[in-house]
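Schema walkthrough. Field components (list of strings):
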Amino acid sequence: MTQATTLADLSNLMTYSAMLVLSLAMIAFFVSFAQRRTSAEIVRERVTEPALVGGSATAHVDADPATGEAQFEPGRRAGNIAMALTWVAFGLLSVAVLTRGLWAGRVPWGNMYEFSLVSAFAVLGVFLAVSLTRDVRWMGVFIVPLALLTLGLAVTVLYTEAAQLVPALQSYWLVIHVSAAIICGGGFTFAAVTALLYLARDSYDRDTRAGRALAPLARRLPPAERLDSMTYRTIMFTFPLWTFAIVAGAIWAEAAWGRYWGWDPKETWSFIAWVVYAAYLHARSTVGWRGRRAAWLAVAGVAVYWFNYFGVNLLFSGLHSYAGI
Amino acid sequence: MASQTGSGPAPGATPGAESAVDPDAAALTFTTHADPMDKQAGTPAGLGPLGWMRWLWARLTSMRTALILLLLLGLAAIPGSLIPQRTSDAIAVNQFVAQNPELSQWYERFGLFDVYGTPWFSAIYLLLFLSLVGCLVPRARQHWRLWRNSPTPPPRRMDRLPAVATVAVGPKALDVAEARLRQQRWRVRRGTDWVAAEKGFARETGNQVFHFALLGVLAAIGWGALAGWHGNIVIREGTGFANTITQYDTFTAGRFSGSDALPPFTVQLQSFDVDFERGEAQRGAPRNFDARVLVTDADGSTVTESFGVNDPLELGNAKVYLIGHGYAPRLRIRDGAGDVVFDDSVVFLPQDGNFSSQGVIKAPDARPEQLGFRGIFLPTAAIDPELGPISTFPAPDDPAVFLSAFAGDLGLDDGEPQNVYELDDTGLTQLGLRALREGETWRLPDGAGSVEFTGVDRYISVKVGSDPGGAWALAFVGLAIVGVCMSLFIRRRRLWVALGPTPDTVVVAGVARGEGTDMHGDVDELAAVLGPVRSAEPAATRDSPSQGKEDGAS
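Field assembly_structure (string):
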């Protein structure tokens, strides 16, 4: 028993350590973002807005040309430190998740605390995986605070002692259905962040065209078109998985509760999320809806997703409320 | 020299002319898959009833209407999660009505206690599916036609395509290109001075499969409701039931489900075991359910089975699901004459997570007066200074019943049905109150009789049912997932090779649809195979991959 308690305690210790490292990473990301200006943008800005950035653009050209374009970027050092810290936090979090699962002898997503822990782990995982092939350090400034917020809620509001599962959760569908839902949460959140950034960047572009550019932070974002495309691609992968997650839930519900669909609040809100993302995919190919309206749908979708998680679990009583919180 | 059609309309013009697939327009904008709404842009000025119908139909089947209906469906689903629903929790509805009688009348008027069965909710999804059909059928026809006519000849101005390369090579290159494209499993068509190739028709096929499969899911759910049946029943340990309608506490059958739909079997509950968490964390939470039953089939053969949550019992086309459980204390009641007038277990309904339970026992055969009891059963009994008798743990560690005895007329003789869980105390006089441990007997005052608490049984509540639509719904939903993946991940590509504007050159060009799809890879690869590339477009234009060339170009 002492050894088992040690494992659960170790998991908690690792979670707190990960949060500490993640806080440092967040600060580094903020510094990096504040200093940031990509080479592509410098070229763009030189062409489109010479008056605005003339001074700073020339300053960057002094960078060592031999080491390539990336040297243009002044936020690079802080960005690298931030990424390294994020990797460390991710490593600590993986130990936290692993030890929690080992202690309980099951998958580590049996209650809201564990689900949040693994969600933060998944969001960081998606972010780090994408960072291996392309430079998405600028996204860290948005992703890392989100992960930190999730972890903070997990350890304060949602904390539950590690324990065994109620019979309704004792099913291999827990592995399939919930892991799919967690990955979808990561994907939808990622897509909502890019959608919001798209909206910010698009507003900035409009203001620029109208001759009244005000938001200098938005200038440091990638082009609106690229952000829009990132949102779409993320949802493109997440939507079929979300469909699968709902279907897996229905199959499980049939075995556990005797019906595959009963408009339980959780079922209702996952259906609403599905409908919103279906609407997003259609909106993107409908005149008058693509662009800003579609982006707002991507944001609404993630709001529904997270309401389905926090709101439905904490406010409503339904078949999905068990294991404390 | 490249195009074989005459003067086609400008790109983006009337896609309503479905049969005439103009290669230029089709190649550049994929207008052949345009949103049908675009064909009816104007308002119907001075149209007859038929014209109005047509206009309405065009509106209904437009993507914009479908989008609005989709969002409306999501919005309409919300109240059902905020207001208790009869279908999932009838008790909560009754409580709500008792607490808010005024508001409930209004809720009732709009069907808000059964949102998903109301006409207005049905209207939204039926309109949505109608819109879907109206959109899909012409699109399917178009897709078929396009597939038959493909690959289309190259457009006249190949240099206007998103990816172009010119290769310095003679006409022989067409043969090389054709062979290579066929080898790479493109759909290839050869003209005198051109080769056309297409790939990725499955993108649109998947799209159609997805939407038709959704219709299938709806049909399967409807079929399940019409042809299925289900009933609920409570079984105490040592008792059982036969699978006939009259045995069920509640029973629902679809219109097409005859009474012969119920497979004949009987189920006898031999034992029901529950393990509860005894550790610190989540103390009292259930950990394991195990119901052991003796099943007798139609032919008289018996078999012992075990089932629980997540593990329903399958009997013929029916399934038996474990829905709930509780305690049924056993009581032996003797009347004033000393005759045993009641000796059985009684279902007590749990009131909290520790199974403090309430129940009623009626002994109409007792003489000289009928006897009735209101009882509280506590699996682990304790007395709370404020709440009174209460259970502190759900397992029967220290069981006790608190009984309140009544004598008089139970009111059963006038033949009106009574709730077995309620005791109407008009016409009854209370004899007293007493707590009993297992094995204890309470001699009632005035020689009215006695009551003995002989032991504790458990009961389970089960749902028995058959849903012939379930397997179909699952099959269609699987098809829908395959379809949506095809429509999202398959890239639709067109590639042409044609003799160039100058002798001894060949132009390779392509167009693609799908996010992040660009044809430069395909075009460059093929061009490199054919010969020395003389000119490709300037690299600057390649920064942003082609996108937005999707349906509904206007």
